[in-house]
UniProtKB/TrEMBL annotation:
This is Polyketide cyclase. SUPFAM superfamilies: Bet v1-like. InterPro entries: START-like_dom_sf (IPR023393). The lineage of its organism: Eukaryota, Fungi, Dikarya, Ascomycota, Pezizomycotina.
């Protein structure tokens, strides 16, 4: 699958940034593409209302490596894997989210999803740095 990694520099240490956002309950604060409202835990994991309907999400367990991967189960449409990492970059951190172009996506939809990820990472950056949500992420695609 075609992929694009969107990155964003954040002025926080990797440990501090990871601890701010690794919990599933933190994702709705910044990841509008994942959950348009809050996540709810049930007996089998996490569920949410995604932009296109109900979804189930599996998150990577807490770890020391800055890995925040998650798998979004869209039901009949399959499961989408989303690699998400926080790594050291000087005195701050680089947040890296890889978006895979799904087989049913046309180029325009994929481009919109990449832009959506950029905006979501901008919100994460603003929250982490204590700024207003108008802050734009530094655009450095890999």
């Amino acid at each position: 699958m075609e992929s694009q990694t969107v990155t964003c520099f954040v002025r926080r240490t990797p440990h501090d940034l990871y601890e701010m956002f690794w919990k599933p309950q933190s994702f709705p604060l910044w990841a509008s593409g994942l959950a348009s409202a809050s996540l709810e835990r049930d007996s089998t994991g996490w569920k949410a209302q995604g932009p296109e309907g109900p979804i189930r999400i599996t998150f990577t367990e807490h770890n020391a490596l800055g890995v925040m991967d998650h798998w979004v189960d869209l039901g009949e449409e399959g499961v989408v894997y989303i690699p998400l990492r926080i790594v050291a970059n000087g005195e701050g951190s680089e947040v890296m989210l890889t978006l895979f172009r799904q087989p049913e996506m046309d180029s325009e939809q994929y481009a919109r999803d990449v832009d959506w990820v950029r905006k979501d990472l901008g919100v994460l950056k603003a929250l982490a740095e204590g700024e207003g949500q108008e802050s734009e992420p530094e655009k450095r695609d890999v």
